[in-house]
Amino acid sequence: GASTIGLDVAIGTGAAAADTVTIAGAATGSTTILADALGTQPGVLVNGLVLVDAGAGSSAGAFTLGGIPASSGLVGYSLGFDAANTTYALYGTPTDAAYQLVEASEGAREAFYRGGDAWSGHMRSLRDAGAAEDGARRGSALWGQMYGSLSRTRAAQDVAAFGQTRSVRLDHRQDIYGGQIGYDLGGLGDRHGSVVGMTGGYANSTLDFRGSAGRLRYETANAGLYAGIVAGAAFVNLIGRYEHLWARAVLPGAGVRQRFDGHTLGGKAEAGLRLGGERFYAEPSVSVDYARTSLDTLDLAPTTIDFDRAEGLRGSAGMRLGSVMGTGQTRTTVYLSG
């Protein structure tokens, strides 16, 4: 039948201890364990604290956990059954909110990539201008690019902690808005030319998790150096950038509202061919982005989140088909890319 027992449980950062019920025979039926968490500190991981030691033939559902929060901060508590030893033990493992924090590095990396994409857009405009039949080389010029994007990601992970496995959904949406400015020295002509320059930018981004009120917010500022060269039909562009970020994690379900800093160091290389003329051209190209993100450690006492250095490599290949229309100082470039 159904019954209830109370056990004293003490969970601390140093150790965990609890009263233990010993049953000589098989444990069956349905019993709720009211865990009186004496001296409990919320958010402490627990690895298999035995509450019941039963005999052979015990059923996995003979005991359930009560009297203790299902989750406390970034740690969730559950009762696990060890069939080999016929014991019922308390486990404290990371909650969904804890795994959401893992996405902080990915969100920072995506914001970094967008700044590189803005620079790529500028280099495309230089090629279009330089390829014009009467296009003149520029000695120097100030440029700017504004951008905005919205992406949706569906993600699921099978995770394990202390032998306890489960699936975690990390679906999220991220918007990124910002701008990149720079200064060119040199210029690109029809079939030759080179340019070097410096660039800087700012971006604001929010990453919202689906199915919860959790979100990560970023503000970033970056600076970098770049170079580009055109030789005949071929072109090569390179950029290296450093980006500092100011982030805030807001996870209401876990009681987390924490600010932290970080930085991303990386670059982008792209190469391709520009085939055709001003009226119509085809531009096959490839590019590679590299980003290495480091985030500050989060001290959410007694839980500490220590982010590993995250590295990302993104490659792409595509084709741009376009045409430059107009004469003199007024020109319009129309293209399709994919």
Note down, in words, how this protein is organized.
There is one protein chain. The protein folds into two domains: 2-94, no CATH class; 106-337, Lipocalin (Beta Barrel), CATH 2.40.128.130. The longest helix has 27 residues, at 104-130. With 338 residues, the protein is mostly beta strands. The chain has helices at 96-102, 104-130; strands at residues 2-11, 16-18, 21-22, 30-37, 46-53, 63-66, 71-72, 75-82, 87-94, 140-153, 156-161, 164-169, 172-188, 192-209, 215-231, 234-251, 256-273, 275-276, 281-295, 298-300, 303-305, 310-327, 330-337. Strands 10, 13, 14, 15, 16, 17, 18, 19, 22 and 23 form a ten-stranded antiparallel β-sheet that branches. The chain has a five-stranded mixed β-sheet with strand order 3-5-9-8-7. The radius of gyration is 29 Å and the shape is elongated. It has two helices and 23 strands. A hairpin with a 4-residue loop joins strand 8 (75-82) and strand 9 (87-94).
Task: Summarize this structure as a short list of keywords or feature phrases.
elongated; Lipocalin; mainly beta; ten-stranded antiparallel sheet; 10% helix; five-stranded mixed sheet; 338 residues
In brief, what are we looking at here?
The protein is mainly beta.
How would you describe the shape?
elongated
Number of helices: 2
Q: Mean of the pLDDT scores?
A: 88
The string of secondary-structure elements, in order, is EEEEEEEEEHHEEEEEEEEEEEEEE
Number of strands: 23
Within CATH, the superfamily of the largest domain carries the name Autotransporter beta-domain
Task: Summarize the main sheet.
Answer: 10 strands, antiparallel
The fraction of residues assigned to DSSP E strands is: over 45%
- Rg from alpha-carbon coordinates: 29 Å
Classification by helices and strands: mainly beta
